Amino acid sequence: MSASCGVTPSLRTELFTSSSKSSIFPAQICRPRNKCEISRRDFAVRGGIVASGVSVMGTPSSPSAASQSLQGSERLAFKPEGYNFWEWRGHKIHYVVQGEGLPLVLIHGFGASVFHWRYNIPELAKKYKVYALDLLGFGWSDKALIEYDAMVWTDQVIDFIKEVVKEPAVVVGNSLGGFTALSVAVGLPEQVTGVALLNSAGQFASESRKREEADETVITKFIVKPLKEIFQRVVLGFLFWQAKQPSRIESVLKSVYINTANVDDYLVESISKPATDPNAGEVYYRLMTRFLMNQSRYTLDSVLSKMTCPLLLLWGDLDPWVGPAKAEKIKAFYSNSSLVHLQAGHCPHDEVPEAVNIALLDWLSNVVPKPTSP
Q1: 112, CA 20 to 30 Å: which among 135, 199, 214, 267?
Q2: Which domains, ranges and CATH numbers included, belong to the chain?
Q3: Measured in whole angstroms, how far is the alpha carbon of residue 132 from the centre of its chain?
């Protein structure tokens, strides 16, 4: 167990920008010919524990072609009891490890778990040693009753690399896991040799200022402030109860996956089972009221400006939350980066896993430096 803080106070200070407020979660939806915006509060409440951890796809031009992408693919075995556990600050952290070679550390998005990498772990493990862990409060890891902050997960992954991986690694993250991966690379530069982002969360300072102003005038003034804690608990308690029902999960997944054949019992159970943990409801409440609604500290530019390793952007261009324009902006800001466009939504690793695996393996073999032998 680690009682140390993986991110130093100086790093926390550098990542904090008092003049610019941000959300590390998607803040708006933009669809062709239909200008529509949704605040991060609405996203959090409407999405519940389901939509925030899966992808949103556009209408497929060929559903049969999409279904063929998974034929013959190896899949991580689903284990209701989980795989391996590591103790961190008094909490159980769930993780999977397969393969040998240069370590890869996979970090899931909000509301998901290691099982969201079901089609990536077996393939990547043929050439690399693949680790995937559940962030504290999600998946099979403990539902700790703490004050959640973006840096909690950064600290967790940094300590995981130090104590479990114990050698230089490439960090791969989707959505919330993407922003966490960037923060880990800044906090542990000597052990992170590369970062791959799949539709990462996070905003640039200029974007976050505009979003915060909109949220303050519309959401905070008329909805959040008038609601007292007791009413927030009632509303969010009901939403959590509704969102964790398997039938509801399946319905939401089918509405957001381009290929509904991928919405199987495996995927539904990987989301519904963690929601039955005794503390899951309280963690959900804390994330909704104290984390998602109070993200005002961290921006992409503040992190990217301090990162030094190669960066790969694997971007689902059909993502209505964080579309390709964001990927292009990250690439323009960070010169040591490569961008691969994918016909997928917010979670391309589960929607077009073969394309993601091929692109990631190609980048790893050609760009990421191999550890030198002692």
Answers
A1: 214
A2: 84-365 (3.40.50.1820)
A3: 12
